[in-house]
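Structure in, sequence out. Go:
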């Protein structure tokens, strides 16, 4: 029977990424049962590791004796001193922008707009950045494993591609001459920060 892990995320994009990465290891990853009914903890950590740990520890208490995963991840831009970093999902909100009240979630669009505004005067050679993911496993309220993964790239001055989510249309991979939004999911997970973090975690679990 393949190892079954549970991940505490409401992001369909993250869930899809982790599930795709897990397929190559014959591991099953499912969302934490009844996650939508659980009051989320306050993510007040200063680092990805702090936030991932507090989420894994917190959510593992709702599924006794099972390994529960939680990640914290985001974009670190060198010209912005590592921002948006842990505030990647809330970059636009921190700038005072709110999502439009229609049926579509435009958070990614607003975050990308703010990023482009902040980098407007930064020339292409200085737009170096990385995606960074910290993945933590916990059982019964105690952390058991922690790994991280990164992928280096550049931030473009205009979006390209329609795949992925978050900052993917702006995150350019020089070695592939593509953005994260222009590559297929299997390729993305073979080089992505989440794919690398999960592979490292499964190695620790001897999978």
């Amino acid at each position: 029977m393949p190892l079954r892990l549970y991940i505490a995320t409401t992001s369909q994009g993250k869930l899809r990424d982790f599930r795709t990465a897990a397929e190559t290891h014959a591991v099953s990853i499912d969302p934490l049962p009844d996650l939508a009914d659980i009051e989320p903890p306050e993510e007040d950590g200063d680092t990805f590791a702090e936030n991932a740990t507090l989420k894994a520890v917190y959510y593992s208490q709702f599924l006794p004796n099972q390994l529960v995963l939680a990640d914290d991840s985001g974009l670190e831009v060198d010209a912005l001193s590592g921002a948006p970093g842990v505030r990647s999902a809330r970059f636009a909100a921190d700038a005072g922008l709110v999502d439009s009240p229609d049926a579509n979630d435009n958070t990614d669009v607003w975050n990308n707009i703010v990023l482009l505004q902040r980098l407007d005067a930064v020339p292409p050679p200085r737009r170096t950045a990385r995606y960074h993911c910290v993945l933590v496993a916990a059982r019964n309220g105690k952390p058991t494993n922690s790994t991280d993964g990164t992928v280096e790239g550049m931030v473009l001055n205009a979006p390209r591609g329609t795949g992925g989510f978050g900052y993917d249309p702006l995150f350019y991979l020089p070695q592939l001459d593509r953005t994260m939004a222009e590559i297929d999911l299997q390729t993305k997970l073979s080089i992505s920060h989440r794919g690398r973090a999960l592979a490292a975690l499964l190695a620790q679990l001897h999978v």
